[in-house]
Amino acid sequence: MMTILAVFFLLVALLLFWQSDKKRRQTGLPGGRVVYTDTRSWGPVDRPLYDPKLRLTGKPDYLVERGGQIVPVEVKSGKAPKAPYDSHIYQLASYCLLVERMMGKRPPYGIIHYENRDFAIDYTPALEASLLEILTEMRRDERSTNVDCSHRSPARCRGCGYREICDQRLT
Ligand code: SF4
After folding, report:
1. pTM of the complete model
2. Which secondary-structure segment (H or E) carries 110?
3. Which residues contact 96 (CB under 8 A, 6 or more apart)?
4. Is the separation of the CB atoms in 100 and 106 below 8 Å?
5. Is the CB of 15 under 6 A from ligand 1?
6. Strands 69-75, 62-66: pairing kind
7. Atom of ligand 1 nearest to the CA of 170
8. Phi–psi pair at 39, nearest 5 degrees
9. Which of 6, 63, 86, 168 sees the fewest Cβ atoms within 10 Å?
10. What is the pLDDT of residues 59-105, one digit of tens each?
11. Residues in contact with 1: Cβ distance below 8 Å, sequence separation at least 6, in sequence order
């Protein structure tokens, strides 16, 4: 079961990664705002959140309860980019969506924690709609035997675990 879940997490992460550039061009994601956060208030998450209707699961690194609100936190290794990567934004948005559906409270924002900086990402209706659109596309592509590459980044291909068998790799 854990293996299946691990594969599913990986697939979701990869698909979100693949789709993110395209969605950014279409919707213009918010870049996030730099915030100070007190990590002492962060509570670890025991088990993955799961929405059977969307067949979506995910486990934020932390949940922060503050003033009756729940804010998911995703921790990324490495220094912060100028603005959070789109794939990170969508991953965080999926946690916001899961928190709302599982816990009945809509997070106003989520936090991406890099080594040297934190970004708050507002969980707006537009971001939610964009995420749901991606999930719909993912479900459609699940049934396809051929899915076109959605990016033009050789760097992604260099770090991709599928590059040996992918006939669309860019390097
Ligand atoms: S190697 Fe293929 S699957 Fe991997 S990122 Fe490149 S195009 Fe996508």
Report:
1. 0.69
2. strand 109-113
3. 72, 106, 107, 109, 110, 123, 128
4. yes
5. no
6. antiparallel
7. 6
8. -65, -15
9. 6
10. 999 998 888 899 999 999 989 988 898 889 999 999 999 999 999 99
11. none
Distance 19 CA to ligand 1 centre (A): 12
Output the six-digit token pair for 105: 């409270």
Q: How confident is the model at residue 1 (pLDDT cuts 50, 70, 90)?
A: low
- Does residue 6 sit in helix, strand or coil? helix
Instruction: Specify the pLDDT at position 20.
Output: 55
Which residue's structure tokens are 């924002």?
109
Residue 75: how many other CB atoms lie within 10 Å: 15
Tell me the two tokens of residue 12: 């979701």
In short, whether 166's Cβ falls inside 6 Å of ligand 1 is yes
- Tokens coding 54: 């969307």
Q: How far is the CA of 123 from the centre of ligand 1 (A)?
A: 29
* Contact status, residue 86 vs residue 20, Cβ threshold 8 Å: yes
Which helix (H) or strand (E) segment holds residue 27: the answer is helix 2-27
DSSP 24-85: HHHH-----EEE---GGG-EE--S-EEETTTTEEE--SEEEEETTEEEEEEE--S---SS--
